[in-house]
Amino acid sequence: EQMRSDGGRNAKKGQQQTIDLKEYPSKVLPLQNVDHNGNLTAYPDMVRLPYLHEAGILYNLKERHLSGKPYTRTGDIVIAVNPFQWFHDLYTEKKRVYYSNRLVWEAADQDPRDSMEPHVYEVSSLSYKGLAFEMMNQSILVSGESGAGKTETVKICMNHMASVQKGPIRPGMEESLDPVVQRVVESNPLLEAFGNAKTRRNDNSSRFGKYLQLQFDNSKMKESSLTSRSVSNCLLAGSKCDVYLLEKNRVCVHDDWERTYHIFYQLLAAPDDVKGKFWSKLKGTSNKSFKYVGETDTKKIEGQTDAEHFQHTINTLELIGISGDKLKTLSDGEHFANTVKTLDLINIRGDKLVAMMRAICAVLQLGNLGFNAKNGDADKSAVATIEELRDLAELMGVEEKDLTLAFTERTMKTKTEEYKVPLNAVAAKDACDALAKEIYGKLFLWLVSEINTATCAEDNYKNGSMSNFGIIGLLDIFGFESFVVNRFEQLCINYANEKLQQKFTEDIFRSVQTEYEAEGIELAEIWYDDNTDVLDLIEGRTGLLALLNEECVRPQGSDQAFVQKALQVNNASQCLIVNKMDRMSFGIHHYAGKVMYDADQFVSSNQDTLPTDLSDLCSMSTNFVIANEMAKVEAANMTRGTPRRQKSNLVAPTAWGKYKTQLLSLMTNLRKTESRYIRCIKPNMKKVPVLMEHIPTVEQLRCAGVVAAVTLSRSAFPNRL
Q: Domain named Myosin motor: which ranges (predicted)?
């Protein structure tokens, strides 16, 4: 009870509590860990904790957090508590050199970490060492809930990797970067501009998942020994980035005190002479000019976002030779200037830049279109904002009348005929929003493709082309989500987290247990959650994924029919929750807790198809970015064909099906690597420094499997080499 109420913070030194343990006699344990002299101690490696329980772990993390030490080690796992402030002395050039030299370039008879403070730099250093000297591909999996600091942690690791690949260096040595490496480092802020947004829980929230594969030339390592450690033998050669599940709905809708994607605010805050180069009618506009952006005063939000990431920007720019004293807190307009410079770095300039920005303007303009009943007929619609439509037609380079028909009518096809069906005003506006989301989603994928073209080692490596490169993967994917209303996107996100939790379980628990059993070494039995039953419910042959896909290809498929089938077919599952008060909802007992889902629009979200009228029109646009990307959609629609039956389920290309394929590919690639884990913790919901709220923190520790991981690591510690 004391741990639940105050995390043991008011426990007096030496105070004890009787703990009732299941299936074991009661045992007296201290609420806080003390050393052999009875002094309260915060341990850098929680494997060393004398007494292992949630209160002790919470207290240990809290003491380090309040002391300005955000990192704590648990065996090979690093726990990163978001400090909500920047500790410059933790990320200096001297610190980067210290960790890379000690862990990579200096030979040691025993693990140097025993005498080193925990740091994410140790994870990046050991990953590089594993690739360079053990010839094994690596991955770093960063997990945590929204606002826990995942994206910043990945950036810190990547920046350090760019430094460590240059070999053993001394502080003060020049740290110039190869142009390709510079593009790799600077691609992150570019993706943030187009894929991150301010939410209630995080001022710079990644609204997409990302797996960045850093490519290294380690071909010469076979010729070198551990005694000839040279940077020239394992250079960073390039990178490739895969992205997952961009939150396209945010283009059209966001809650009060949240924002849509940063790039919209950056563009609208640019000087008029700059905006006029992209579209003359953009001059004189502001956030209030476009409904998708909204009228909320974002100055406070902008200040919060900039303040949180200012020092991260300094750290990145110092790495490429720009000192912090040349910088100041950046506004949205100044961020836009930096975004344009970075776009130029990856060869998006001139006509290509103009086409890209005009596509963004088209998305903004789509939000301003309005529709009403046509001549009083509620079953038909007409454009109510003619001037806005005319401006949109200009931006897209299509005929105004063709655009009108594409929004207000739908082409229907049968085997023998083709005919038009009028749309009402609501359906017309839905089509308008669907087009905005599709254009922005395709624009984002196009940007990722352009970044990969500019950074991939196959095309850009200075030492010649190679077919195979060593890989260190950095995974930054959405954290577990549970809101007041949870929809299709939340189920997809939580499904990904279940898959990653399964791998974490395999790596940290099952593999060690199997190893010890194979060696005949006794290992104390350790209880842990196995989420196989949850994954069976979601992705099994009769699971939610199969049933939703089947409903999507039925002519009269509906959200309610999907829920009824899901509950009926899976009624024996202990993970499925029935809501008897609402036939449109269901729940799942996820590894991280119970989540109730509202199935409204599950079927339409899973179908994820743009009406052919709109995709055909966009493929004829004079904006080559829009036209080329929409032509790909049209080609995909042509090859979709009719749904096919595979075993017992109807199968058709759906959003969830494509997403599942992506995840399976990701998990396959991750299993080919040696994975290292960073568990990010959000210490409070207020996003302020020097505060740890106990209940939310403990819940995150449970979700992350930290207690069981500490137990296993300590059990294994004396026997592992």
A: 41-721
